[in-house]
Amino acid sequence: MRAMEFARFGGPEVLEEVELPDPEPGPGELLIDVEAAGINFADVRQVAGVYAPPGSLPHVPGSEVIGRTADGRRVMGFAPRGYVSKALLPEKAAIPVPETLGAGQALALLVQGLTAWHLLRSSARLQPGESVVVHSAAGGVGTLAVQLAKEFGAGRVIGTASSPEKRELAVSLGADVAVDGAAGGYVQRVVEANLGRPVDIVLDAVGGRVFTAAQDALAPFGRLIMYGGSSGEETPPIDVWTLSERNVSVGGFWLRQIMGAGFERPLGELFELTAAGKLKPQVGGEYALSDAAAALKDLAERRTVGKLVLVP
């Protein structure tokens, strides 16, 4: 089978295309011909050696695939190696995918969709009418979080993004307004976007100085949920006494921790919303498997929107 692997840590350029033996399914495993593999920012960090580094090198990155079994079933799921033309999935965790759903859309719902769902439902516990700020609102999680926040009853939804084009995308997907997400002047811009009031919920994938600034934009009983650190900046320690004095909360979310804990219900809801046209997963780009390095470079340099996929 074809695969992309890295034998040393570094930038996306360390990825190389190789031929590996086809995986042999064991008991309870399915071998699938990969239709598409998902790309995530975590892959950039893993190749660099700073995020869940593998136990040994060389290593094939990636964690999510969609494809067909030998008997023609179309399924997707989490795979230990994703940047491949053939992959193994645990049979009990293989998720049937409707033929009407594009491969990129399906993969967007698997990781980014589940993340957005849990950020709003499980971590922030959004209540009807509350204001929500979505950082990186043109990204894979952000584009879905903007839409889901509205669907789940949020009052005012504010997106942040780095360019006018990305901010326009956030508004087109349902954000009431979108602003520059840079740390300088963050609080003023966000509060103004919320009609002069502090905000109830902030979903942060940036970290660093933006994460610190977001704390100061929270209303009493506001919640700031961190689920990524795309800025690469070190995030300063949290002053818990300040949180206490202001009656605000800071939390975190990592999908990996709940991958094996029944995601059928939220994923089923995401499928239903997509089928009904109420949720529109954004596929920002399809790359050939051999172009994985270019895909990761584009993602790392924030030139992309929505979900990126590799097509073997």
From TrEMBL:
Residues 10-310 form the Enoyl reductase (ER) domain. InterPro entries: ADH-like_C, ADH-like_N, ER, GroES-like_sf, NAD(P)-bd_dom_sf, Zn-ADH-like_protein. PANTHER family: QUINONE OXIDOREDUCTASE-LIKE PROTEIN 2 (PTHR43677:SF4), SHORT-CHAIN DEHYDROGENASE/REDUCTASE (PTHR43677). This is Zinc-binding alcohol dehydrogenase family protein. The lineage of its organism: Bacteria, Bacillati, Actinomycetota, Actinomycetes, Streptosporangiales.
